[in-house]
Specification:
The structure holds 2 protein chains of 2 kinds.
Chain A (H helix, E strand, L loop, with lengths): L2 H24 L7 H12 L4 E4 L6 H10 L5 E5 L6 H5 E6 L4 E6 L6 E5 L6 H13 L1 E4 L2 E4 L5 E6 L12 H4 L4 E4 L5 H11 L13 H12 L5 H15 L13 E3 L3 H17 L7 H12 L4 E2 L1 H5 L4 H11 L4
Parallel strand pairs in A: 1-8, 1-9, 2-5, 5-8
Antiparallel strand pairs in A: 3-4, 6-7, 10-11
Helix pairs in contact in A: 1-8, 2-10, 9-10, 10-11, 11-13
Chain B lengths: L1 H17 L2 E7 L2 E3 L3 E9 L6 E3 L7 E7 L3 H4 L1 E8 L3 E5 L3 E4 L6 E4 L3 E6 L22 H4 L4 H27 L9 H15 L7 H20 L8 H8 L7 H18 L8 H15 L7 H7 L1
Parallel strand pairs in B: 2-10
Antiparallel strand pairs in B: 1-3, 3-6, 4-8, 5-6, 7-10, 8-9
The chains are: A alpha/beta, B alpha+beta.
């Protein structure tokens, strides 16, 4: 192996112990949600925001709260409601009668971890304010622009059912989330463990085991993970297959795809694959990393047509077909 | 008196000297039917006065061409004539006017005779050969002048063949017809031999070697056992091998090589060069091991 990659792998083996500590801590409260926790860590280490989607009661909020509890970082939870205003999120200028001056009151977005609970319940203007902050990593209040703390990670949840009175996120805004994780019901034995653990009154405490500085160090390490040109071509093939499926002998997908993945998909696929390789203690990315995170990066970026909806073909199935057709390098 | 005569003599001499003279010649005097006759009319002593020639006009003669190229220099006019019947003919006179209207002088050409003979000799009843017989042996070299005919034919044939080939190919493509592939074993062995002949390890191209090597074996698996091995990662292949459809030697012996290939392909790993030959041998061995059993015609018929 190349000397740089060997050294990088050794560093990763040392640093990934931090990830293990986080997973161990969260494992005290979360059972059978390793997939979700790993994706949250990928978002954390690859500097990408995460959207969690699942029916109520699947521990989405608990997972985010528990993850933030393992970090010595500031955590804010914002419950998105129809009457929420942008100022409630980013902050506002308050007039002080005593000294006749406006003072800035920063909103709850000024935190390392922001849980945007049920993001689709707030109107578009609030969603826009949040998503702008996610993209720019800064907030403007009055005449002043304030940078958001680092690390800054938005973990949003939404409920796929109960669509009455919701404001679905537009495609352009969903695109800003690196991952969209679909949470499913736990298995029978996992639910049995959940039932036993939460039937008691004394729920175990989670301790903070990682500092923001350590997270930043891991991010720097993740960015150094080697991605071979063959892997880059594989990513490009996948992304382009969502745009021009006929060029990849996927003619049957042409009428099902309204529009394909944006260039953000390519960027996030590489970043998330690097973070996944980090969790697997590797200093290089392999096609397995791409396939592991491919669905989470692409599912909200491939828009299906009415025809696909009529035939009950989801973006998930389209991505599956693409992965099953593109040759692994 | 002497003076008068002298003056008269000078006048007569001057007049004689300035009087125009005409000369004409018809050649040849004897000709065959179809031959042309040349009538040349020359005027001398015109003293720079303009000349206007008439035309020989007679029903027995046809005027083919008039040649005035020597008119200015020598006062000469040429006529090309033809006669289409046999016999003795006399060309009638025609006028030549010398000078302008005020002092115009008209001269007439002298009578010219010609004898036109038949092409048949008097003594023979057979026609004379128009061209004498000449020996003309066949020479291949003469054919070379016509090289473009077979070349053009070949070009046209190629164009027609190419057009038909393309049409058929397009039609097959539209109908979803694909060329039959060779059996997976044959194809894989042929590709492995080609990989060996490329001598990638000796050229330091280990990444290319391992990329092609893993491609050949995964393609073989895909065709032989009918599962999408080319679209599977090494880890997914490992899971797939667990169901036991592939001989046990494949997972136990090939998977370590595929993992090594992944390191070479994606992590800049440089393995020992000498092991590449062993990997190739392993490829041949695994293919032989999993070769599909040959079926006889009766078995195929029974299966059908």
């Amino acid at each position: 192996m190349d000397q740089d990659i060997r050294e990088l792998t050794h560093s990763i083996e040392r640093e990934s112990e931090l990830a293990d500590r986080v997973l161990t801590e969260t494992g005290k409260l979360l059972f059978g949600q390793r997939y979700m926790m790993e994706r949250l860590l990928i978002g954390l280490f690859a500097d990408g925001h995460v959207l969690l989607e699942g029916v109520p009661g699947l521990a989405k909020t608990l997972a985010v709260k528990t993850l933030s509890a393992t970090m010595q970082a500031k955590f804010q939870r914002i419950q998105f409601t129809p009457d929420l205003l942008p100022a409630d999120l980013v902050g506002t200028l308050v007039y002080n009668q005593k000294d006749s001056q406006f003072t800035t009151r920063k909103g709850p977005i000024f935190a390392n971890f922001v849980l945007a609970d049920e993001i689709n319940r707030a109107p578009a203007k609030v969603q826009s304010a949040l998503l702008e902050a996610m993209q720019e990593r800064q907030v403007t209040i009055g005449d002043h622009t304030f940078p958001l703390p680092a690390p800054f990670l938005v973990l949003a949840t939404q409920n796929p059912i109960e669509q009455e009175g919701t404001y679905p996120l537009p495609e352009a805004q969903v695109d800003r989330f690196m991952l969209k994780i679909k949470i499913d019901y736990p298995k029978r034995e996992e639910e049995a463990r959940i039932m036993r653990a939460y039937a008691k009154t004394d729920v175990p405490d989670v301790t903070a085991v990682v500092s923001p500085e350590e997270v930043m160090r891991i991010r720097a390490l993740v960015e150094r993970i080697y991605v071979d040109p063959k892997i880059e071509n594989y990513i490009l093939d996948i992304v382009f297959a969502t745009r021009q499926p006929e060029e990849f002998k996927l003619n049957e997908l042409r009428p099902l795809i309204q529009y394909g993945a944006s260039p953000r998909a390519s960027i996030y696929l590489i970043k998330a694959a690097r973070a996944h390789a980090f969790l697997r203690r590797r200093g290089y990315v392999v096609p397995e990393d791409i396939r592991a995170i491919g669905h989470d990066v692409l599912r909200h970026r491939v828009a299906v047509t009415y025809e696909a909806e009529a035939e009950e073909v989801s973006s998930e199935e389209i991505i599956n077909k693409i992965f099953n057709r593109i040759e692994v390098p | 008196m002497r003076g008068f005569f002298s003056l008269l003599m000078v006048w007569l001499w001057t007049a004689a000297a300035t009087a125009a003279q005409m000369d004409a010649a018809l050649a040849p005097s004897t000709a065959h039917i179809g031959d042309t006759l040349r009538l040349t009319v020359r005027v001398t002593g015109a003293g720079g006065r303009p000349l206007r020639f008439g035309r020989p006009d007679d029903e027995n003669f046809s005027l083919l061409r008039v040649d005035s190229s020597r008119l200015a220099a020598a006062g000469e006019m040429g006529f090309t004539l033809a006669v289409y019947d046999t016999g003795e003919y006399t060309l009638p006179q025609f006028p030549v006017i010398v000078g302008t209207a005020a002092d115009a002088e008209t001269l007439f050409t002298p009578l010219q005779s010609v004898t036109i003979a038949s092409v048949l000799p008097d003594s023979a009843q057979s026609p004379l050969p128009l061209k004498p017989y000449r020996e003309h042996p066949f020479q291949w070299r003469e054919l070379l002048a016509w090289w473009w005919i077979p070349a053009l034919a070949a070009l046209v044939s190629c164009a027609v063949w190419f057009w038909r080939w393309r049409s058929r190919r397009r039609l097959r493509k539209e109908m979803g017809y694909e060329e039959p592939l060779p059996p997976p074993e044959e194809e894989a062995i042929r590709l492995l031999i080609r990989l060996r002949d490329e001598k990638y390890p000796a050229r330091g191209m280990l990444k290319e070697f391992f990329s092609e090597y893993s491609y050949i074996l995964r393609r073989y698996l895909e065709r032989r056992y009918e599962f999408p091995a080319l679209e599977m990662t090494t880890y997914e292949l490992e899971r797939r091998f667990e169901n036991g459809t592939v001989p046990i030697e494949w997972p136990t012996r090939l998977l370590p090589v595929l993992r090594e290939a992944d390191l070479v392909k994606f992590a800049k790993y440089l393995p020992d060069y000498s092991r590449c030959d062993a990997h190739l041998e392993l490829g041949f061995e695994l293919i032989e091991l999993s070769r599909a059993p040959l079926t006889t015609e009766t078995e195929e018929a029974a299966a059908a």
